[in-house]
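debug: dumping io for the single-chain case to check the tokenizer round-trip. Nothing else runs in this session.
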Amino acid sequence: MSLVDLANTKIRVIGCSAVMAIGQVISNAIANPGAQAAVGMMGGPIALGGISILAAIAGGIAGNMAANDLGNRMTEKLAKNPRILENRDLSKAAGEAIGYILKEVAKSDKLIAIAETKNLPYPEQALDELADKTPQYWLDINTSTADLSRGLQISEDQLTKIFSADAEEFDRVTGLTPEDWANFVNKFAASDRKSFDAEIVEFVANKLYTTFPKAYREVLKLDAAKGGEKFAAMLLSLHQIALGELKGLGLQNGEILQKLEAVATRQQICQVMVKLEAMEIGIRDDLAQIQNLLERFVDTSAPRLPLPYECETIIQDRTQDFTGRRFVFAAIAEFLQNNRKGYFVLEADPGVGKSSIMAKLVLLLKRRCVAHFNSQSQGIVRAEQFLENACTQLIRGFQLNYPQLPENATRDGNFLSRLLGEVSAKLGGKKLIIVVDALDEVDLSLQGRGSNVLYLPDALPDHVYFIVSKRPKSLPLPNHQVFDLMQYSAKSLADVKVYIDKRTSNSASIQNWINHQNLQREQFVAAVAEKSQNNFMYLRYVLNDIDTGSYSDVTLNDLPRELEGYYKKHWVQMMGRDDDPLLEMKVKIIYVLSKAREAVSRGWIAKSVGETDFKVQQVLRKWDSFLRQQQVDGEIRYSIYHNSFREFLEKDETVQSAGINVEELNRNSINNRIEGAPL
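debug: decoded output
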């Protein structure tokens, strides 16, 4: 590849990256209710009625421009805009995405198989080294010789997918051609005095071709989740450029303009990007075979089932950095293959990853399943909520003849059983899979005596399956098959080590922490895995604390042991000195949050503990890593992130050790609810 061709490749990647970033910001600002709630937009998503977002925007331009004309005009202008082509942050983001793909491809089973079949050296180390150098190499490519007359050459079909708030549509976006990527890989390798077999180059190039858009989207999304310190300014600049171009083309639709203009700050850009739907990047092949098998059980050509917003937010949160668990999905696939119907129960201790596995399963099934996530912290604990959610998904997803739910639909499980029978008759050889998480968080006291949890039917029609999760506690359930995750400690330990290694690879801060303590990476991974006792919630907290610098003065030996140990250590740190003026308030606030039955506002907390909004906000910041924040009706509401921390707080000695009168606090909270304090 000549230097001119390399410059042209970089220009095309930068231009396409700009279009993809703009497409995702604009489409989610217009059509994603979660993104709109996050930035406080008035009104709901624009009803598109089956037309593309590009077509909706084009229809709002004076003279009714065609969607493909709008897409072509936009990309042509962006491809030649010097503010975009010379933007270093845009180059950095693209470089990070390429480096991320190279690191993941390096660990691919298929790549290892190619090397073994052809008796070649394993390429993992060489690709890892290139991945580390990619961002700088990419920045250093001189584009002064690039030919701007070629344009970006993005097809109308690809533009429609780029400007889509639907993750499944964006999943089919591709970047450069495989040949372009192969030429880039060879040139890049040669610059570092490396070379690869042609089949290995072809495999890596194909992965870059199919996954660069998704990896690039993920780089921007992860940065937004951390406050957008690297790329928020660049995204805001791109959005403003695109908005200016649309206005210049004559965009007059007031509703569309209002939603695009509402995204006006770096914080709002981050809020939009964080709410992008979770999607499977699919770089490594660890779960590819399992996914192909699971997809055969459902009709992937049919529209996906309408999951509620609460489910989507949980799926997005719990599948970040998801690693491994192949053996669990293999067991689920085997159950579906070998049984005409039935209940599969995933059983495990708190923090081991049940919710993440359930969320990942929904993605592996391409969302062609009914899904319900019970959550005490979000107030989703009643059978009525499950029945309304499941029945609504079945009616809409399978176009059953019910204009609205009957009045008695959520009274017991009879209406659900009727719907399951109707859907079973329409499956045509496929299977109906219903995924339900956290049965142990359901409030059984609200159900009729002797009923199954959530009124789950004792008898299922053929080809209907429930995949559910719970802690190892006794619950009233129909006949079922149990998969005890705690019996697979060796396989879980292997997944834990891969997760730690992956988090370490993606964090310069963790790598610096390891180096500062003169540790080998393998030593760090093994020690943290042992301390975690295979608990992913422990890993989430501890690795985040190392990443953010909270553990800068903590040695490897002094890291807490197990999740309970982490909670105790953090509790001691939060309590600080006995003369801390905020001590009592810290305890009161976290305690009333642990008792709240759903997410609550600062106003509700302030009234419960008798403090001002401002003081409550100060304390909430200190508890941030343990809280879930969500936008409801334009305000932030708070709840405990994981139920294991709630249980730690509910132990009498935890709160009472700080000298707090628990009975008085409980009375104030009850009075607060009775008086109708703002949620």
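debug: round-trip ok. The chain is about 55% helix and 5% strand.
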